Amino acid sequence: MIHTLYSDLPTFKTLHLQPGLNVLLAEKSDGATQKQTRNRAGKTSVVELIHFLLGADSNKDSLFQVAALREHRFGMICDIGGRAMKVERRGANKTNVNVSEPPSGKQRTLTNTEWTHRLGKAWFSLDPMGDHAPSYRALFAYFVRRQHSGAFSAPEKQATMQQLGAQQMALMYLLGLDWPIAGDWQLVRERDKVRQVLSKTASAGVFGSVIGKAADLRTQLVLAERKLKTVQDNLAAFKVLDEYAELEQEASQLTRDLNMLANQNTLDLGTIQDIEATFQTEVPPGLGDLEQVYRDAGVNLPPGLVKQRYEDVRAFHESVIRNRQSYLQSELAAARARIEARDGNKRRLDGRRAQIMGILQSHGALDQFQRLQAQTSQQAAVVETLRQRFAAAEKLESTKTELKVERDLLTLRLRRDFTEQSGRIDDAIRAFEETSSLLYESAGSMQVEATANGPAFKFPMQGSRSKGIKNMQIFCFDMMLMRLCRQRGIGPGFLVHDSHLFDGVDGRQVIRALRVAAQTANELEFQYLVTMNEDDAFKETEAGFDLGEYVLPVRLTDATEDGGLFGVRFD
Q1: What tens digit of pLDDT does each residue of 351-397 get?
Q2: Which is nearest to 477 in space by CA: 533, 438, 436, 506?
Q3: Nearest to 491 by CA among 150, 133, 61, 78
Q4: SS3 457
Q5: Average pLDDT value for residue range 181-196
Q6: Residue 5 in contact with residue 50, Cβ under 8 Å?
């Protein structure tokens, strides 16, 4: 229960609250028209002040960071853990909270984090429960809904940005259900979200070629592993020969020498063929021809002299023929001898080259060995990369199936929990329906369903598209929540609504809701603080119910500069 809200700001309007229903009104000043609002009177600021004192972050957009307020101390006296405690905080020192508690009343300074841990433990029995557990702030926000967070958009949400997992965990915790199921569901959703992003990325763009499909990668991996084994085997059998380069050069020189000898043999074989052809085709001129030459020359020589000269010429002629044949025979023999010598040399050189080639084939050079090592390393890297890509792709493709299995198992767990905790769910349904039936002839209802995406909370009500009826769904939900939390002994012991809850609500339902709230608060002994515009609060009346009894003596108005909660105007 909140006893007092105060500040050292001189113009601040201290609020003293009572058990049960408390109505803080914003007055409509005389002469104000229907178009004039009281939005600046400070009704919503009361909600923000309670949040500020009970652990909310105070960022640069916070109300308590404006220049007119940030240096002032704001405080509250409220019951925490069965004792009235005083808590004070300043926007200028937003990380610390000053707390005083009986019996000593000695003031202690806590960090805001320490303060929220303490409140969580005192009001919701929260101890550190891991990352996927409901937080104090997530639970508390259901009891003091904030308009600027979108808390009046749906009963099950205390903020527009509240994630589904946080919402499910918070509601299951508050209703006394097995909330870790919702936490596990959130883990599944987060994994599925990552899977979907990776799957989408892996199917297109650069990452598509990086990850690929498991089937394709399996084939590439098998082929790459086979190639790696081949190069590894070659590397294992490789023998390094230090003289490899010299032998390689010698083998090359031997090849050049053999080619040169072969060319020379070819030339000599040509010479032999020419000489042998000459022997077969060349016929030396006969003596008759020689005599005819002499007659044709018409040389008149003495008979004895002519005869002697002719014999000499004949002998010379025969000598020439013999010399030519002798020359040709010697050339032929020389050519054959050279060929024979070269063939012998070729056999020797060829033998040496064969020996070298055998050595080169069975050994390798050091640089060749190093290249083979590098090739092995490169191929091993290729295989490892493919292996990782294959594992990632297979994991990605199998995760979808695994997640479906996990969802099915969680659904079974959830249904089993709903069966085991059917009493609490029935209590919630009855509490919601009872409140709703007091407001409308056609009462709304609450449904709790185990879906494939976790627990779903639905609130079917006739005309629920209407803003006013939707707000009354929130009213019924919050009253149900207070009832169940009071039964379980958790919660802050108060419920706060600002006037936005009644936007669009028919005047008869407004006064009826306030009456229900007063009765429920008295029955369950909790405090209900509501801020309203005066004309909305008293638009209708209920027989046997005097709302004026619950109206706080402090009235807010924006008709004057000091009429608001803070008593000062600021932008």
Answers
A1: 999 988 888 888 877 778 888 889 899 999 999 999 988 888 888 78
A2: 436
A3: 78
A4: strand
A5: 88
A6: yes
